[in-house]
User: Fold this.
Amino acid sequence: MQNSKSMRPFLLRWLFTTIAVFVATKLTGISYSSLYALVAAALFLGILNAFVRPVLLLLSIPFILVTMGIFIFVLNALLLGFVGLIIPGFSVPSFTSAFFGSIVVSIVSWVLSCIFKTSDGKIHVLTHHGQIASESMKQAQAKVVE
Assistant:
């Protein structure tokens, strides 16, 4: 039972990445031949982002600093292009498609992560009501010191 609970955040993040890659295929020149290729590409992209991307970011700090962060988009595009080379049925035809596709994947993943909280393996729709309620409680318990 404990293993299934620890797998939920991973599976939800994989689902979010799959949705993000799907959106990128609709907006850029990236294509896939089957649902299997799409899901495999999202899984491989997630693995690359977890293990390879931090090393690439560390090695390219000078380029990132000189370009004020724009080089991160280039690294993301290279990783997405690499996924297109490795996964059969998933095609990234050009660097331009990879560049804009990586931006779309980043934005969609970020939006989904902002909307849904997944750290405990459960989906929670985030609202500001809890924040407002906790701020009201802090104000109600505050003491004035002169």
In short: The chain has a mean pLDDT of 85. The helical segments are 2-27, 35-51, 53-59, 61-66, 71-86, 95-115, 129-140. Residues 28 and 80 are 12 Å apart (CA to CA). The chain has one domain: 2-140.
